[in-house]
Design goal:
2 domains; four-stranded antiparallel β-sheet
């Protein structure tokens, strides 16, 4: 129904970071048609005809993107032709996170494009390349918590060099900063006391350990919090450690 120039124009707008809704309104093309071009035909990504790359372009951005991927990312093969999709799912509530994720993808693989696919309550920040399974060798069948997750040596070297970026990516995917509270007796009167806390929640023992091992190297104190008797949450609540997290991570936005 649409000629190739129309398709290219719409996809070029998406590659600039425009949402599917805004491109649809501007061009008069349905969101469904644009999504089909992106996820099935996908004629524009330049990296598909190139050999897979083995190194990221920006190591700090990669450390951040690795944290996002381990939390809320997945890789799937193209339904037609060669290549793979990297998708990072971000809640609509955090527009700043969505843009940071897209910027990290473009920095890690500067020959690819990254576009937004709206879903109910969230956005899939999506990119096509043959290189994604090479750059993220943790890719595999099934859910991450159902298989062993371990970093390759070259990945661990990047995390060791850029640990805060890795922590920030993990917190941005599966963590939060909130205010906790308790009560204390002060002069015989019970008063409410509030304090900030960072939470990280992931059912994968391996991914939680990657998080806590990195916190240890940074001098951040943490503790396990169980759910139904099973490890589930990692809490950072000591004042000095929260201050470190605030300086390098901060709340999502």
């Amino acid at each position: 129904m649409y000629d190739i120039d129309t398709r290219k124009r719409a996809l070029a707008l998406v590659s600039q970071g425009r949402s599917l809704n805004s491109v649809s309104k501007q061009t008069g093309i349905s969101r469904h048609a644009i999504t089909c071009w992106l996820e099935r035909i996908d004629p524009l990504p330049r990296a598909l005809g190139s050999p897979p790359r083995s190194k990221p372009d920006d190591l700090a951005a990669y450390s951040y993107l690795l944290g996002l991927y381990l939390g809320d990312g997945h890789i799937s093969a193209h339904t037609r032709g060669s290549g793979y999709y990297l998708r990072i799912t971000c809640a609509d509530a955090w527009p700043g996170l969505i843009e940071e994720c897209r910027a990290a993808i473009l920095a890690v693989h500067n020959e690819c494009t990254a576009y937004l696919v709206q879903r109910q309550g969230c956005v899939n920040v999506t990119s096509s390349s043959q290189s994604w399974p090479v750059l993220f060798p943790q890719h595999g069948p099934g859910r991450k918590h159902e298989r062993h997750i371990v970093l390759e040596k070259w990945q661990q070297d990047i995390v060791d060099t850029h640990p805060w970026e890795f922590i920030r990516g993990l917190v941005h995917s599966d963590g939060c900063r909130n205010m906790n509270w308790t009560t204390r007796l002060v002069g015989g009167e019970r008063k409410r006391y509030e304090y900030p806390r960072y939470w990280f929640t992931n059912v994968s023992d391996d991914i939680r350990k990657l998080y806590t091992d990195t916190l240890d190297t940074l001098g951040v104190e943490w503790k396990d919090c169980t759910r139904h008797g099973q490890p589930y949450n990692i809490s950072v609540a000591r004042r000095a450690s929260v201050a470190l997290m605030d300086a390098h991570v901060g709340p999502k936005y």
